[in-house]
Amino acid sequence: MKYTRILLKLSGEALMGNQQYGIDAERLMQYAEEIKAAAATGTQVAVVIGGGNIFRGVQAEAFGLDRVQGDYMGMLATVINSMALQSALEKLNVNTRLLSGVTIQRVCEPYIRRRALRHLEKGRVVIFGAGIGSPYFTTDSAASLRAIEIEADVVLKGTRVDGIYTADPEKDPTAVRYPEITFEEVMEKNLNVMDMTAFTLCKENNLPIIVFDMNKGGNLQRLIAGETVGTLVKM
Ligand code: UDP
């Protein structure tokens, strides 16, 4: 296997499937199967899942709510998604632990780096919930930060597009996919890979990112085996 330890980032929105809101049962099980197959290769797997299918802090204003309150609502939304994913993985007999950036004592463990490392060494799939536990951040930032902390080899950003394109492929039919690109080029060309905070964390810590299509079965396993899938962002 190419990687000893990976951090997989899934967006909350991806969990909606074709729905407008919430969790699509079929999509959830599909992701759990992919993660199970990835973990079965012996690569250590950590997962960060977003909350955009339930609530995002930026929506707070539209609801007449306070932004910080909205961000905490978003963080709790990621915990709901993480719990769903944990349960789906357990249905498939995968050992998991959910570690949260916001303490929710009865539901999951608090995030403690050493504990996360120990779980990973024991072959458990570790899910990081509640982002980094602070408002004004995103789960992409949480993915970058946790990946650096646990010394993951790579951040695998599972999306519904199969990589980074010269333009938005859903809007521009002439858009071409990059198989590989440098951090510098992404910044020069102003390409949208992750938010700047998340991206800078990866860049400054020389942590490669791979953007790939998570909805295509087997992609995650292919990546772990070292095949070229999606777009690699590196130094
Ligand atoms: N959030 C936060 N701090 C974090 C992670 C998340 O405040 O460390 C909040 C933020 O409001 C965000 C929401 O949780 O909008 C859901 O996460 P995100 O938007 O990253 O989810 P995704 O877009 O991946 O579904």
From TrEMBL:
Family annotation (InterPro entries): AceGlu_kinase-like_sf, Asp/Glu/Uridylate_kinase, Uridylate_kinase, Uridylate_kinase_bac
SUPFAM superfamilies linked to this entry: Carbamate kinase-like
A GO cellular component entry from the record: cytoplasm
The EC number(s) this enzyme carries: 2.7.4.22
Protein residues bound to ATP: K9, L10, S11, G12, G52, R56, T159, Y165, D168
Pathway(s) annotated for this protein in UniProt: Pyrimidine metabolism; CTP biosynthesis via de novo pathway; UDP from UMP (UMPK route): step 1/1
Keywords: ATP-binding, Cytoplasm, Kinase, Nucleotide-binding, Pyrimidine biosynthesis, Transferase
HAMAP family, per the entry: PyrH_B
Family the entry assigns: Belongs to the UMP kinase family.
Official protein name in the record: Uridylate kinase
Species whose genome carries this gene: Hymenobacter lutimineralis
